[in-house]
Amino acid sequence: xxxxxxxxxxxxxxxxxxxxxxxxxxxxxxxxxxxxxxxxxxxxxxxxxxxxxxxxxxxxxxxxxxxxxxxxxxxxxxxxxxxxxxxxxxxxxxxxxxxxxxxxxxxxxxxxxxxxxxxxxxxxxxxxxxxxxxxxxxxxxxxxxxxxxxxxxxxxxxxxxxxxxxxxxxxxxxxxxxxxxxxxxxxxxxxxxxxxxxxxxxxxxxxxxxxxxxxxxxxxxxxxxxxxxxxxxxxxxxxxxxxxxxxxxxxxxxxxxxxxxxxxxxxxxxxxxxxxxxxxxxxxxxxxxxxxxxxxxxxxxxxxxxxxxxxxxxxxxxxxxxxxxxxxxxxxxxxxxxxxxxxxxxxxxxxxxxxxxxxxxxxxxxxxxxxxxxxxxxxxxxxxxxxxxxxxxxxxxxxxxxxxxxxxxxxxxxxxxxxxxxxxxxxxxxxxxxxxxxxxxxxxxxxxxxxxxxxxxxxxxxxxxxxxxxxxxxxxxxxxxx
Length: 482
Fold this sequence. Notes:
The chain is α+β, with helices and mostly antiparallel strands. It folds into two domains: 12-197, DNA methylase specificity domains (Adenine-n6-DNA-methyltransferase TaqI, Chain A, domain 2, Alpha-Beta Complex), CATH 3.90.220.20; 235-251 and 264-435, Alpha-Beta Complex (Adenine-n6-DNA-methyltransferase TaqI, Chain A, domain 2). It is built from 14 helices and 21 strands. It has a four-stranded antiparallel sheet. A hairpin with a 3-residue loop joins strand 19 and strand 20. The longest helix is centred in the C-terminal third of the chain and has 44 residues, at 438-481. The mean pLDDT is 90.
């Protein structure tokens, strides 16, 4: 339970400023502390609503509407929900019916590069994301607030940096209201005070954010190119654009002969998955189980979670299945003293979300890649850890294969369990992995490694932007106090 700091108690004038709002959230979230710090700045502050342009003044979400999803990209547009906006890879977004998206009712929900997105409903209310170039063809749900900056008044990267900083975070999250379901409405944040510094400072911050966005776009592009390169080189082009739900390929019934005690579950003999496996076996291959001999091919360590301070010297930041696919994990810190180092992942380990349900938008059976900065995180036991034990087959090459839609569908067909699915231990070891020539494997692996280096570089640039903004706030606050 949170309580007010003794040195900074909740004051009556705070209540008046909030229209006598009596729930504790804005007073204990740090919102007023941040607001008062901003009030002390020796620079001018401008209301957020005066720095935006476009629909509803430039700060808007959207109407509730019936969502009609389609399967063919020709007839759909990528659709972002309040969780999807946090993702690093947008390859498998659901598709909203294009004719609905383009209609007068919903056309303004198309996101534009430079916008700041704020989740405004549910558990994730208050999270922020910057629209990068590869998101230009996406639409967003009514649960996502769009903040569209006026380029004549403010730089988009600088505005995002402020909203993403600890000052902006406190102000935005201080606007959240509701008990069971959290909400933020456009009028709640229109008056947020945005400090204006000298043009050079704002430009430098903006440039760093834009550079980070460009690098993340290159990360996305490189990841996709590596997978396409692998399948094309292997002669498996037809598996790149796999239309799993194509009506012509649906299985309305089938029979299976030669059953063994390995499995009796019909899903494990799914004809569409069997056709994919047959094509993979048609080319030179090695099974996934053979590749992982001497490496790792098992679920993670189950461990007791003891909370620790949010300090990397003493704690690991814990990554769960869903957060592994975000740009940045947010959440629990666990004590290093009470946790085995086995919760960490070795370089180029593939982490497959191995527990969950079969919903189309669930992460169950999706892979993530541990390398670079992400080696410092702890990972929950719910990941299947795949690490090559074959020096000729790198983890990066293996990840380019496992991230494909074809392998995702194969893994889903190997589900076992009840409500919470798992991946069948014997069946997953039999997955055939195409083996290309050594130069081809190295080229594909290096594409993946380059993509993930760019992702880490993007994070560093965004961190630098936030650091510069924080320094500017504190510098001008100190100047005024002096």
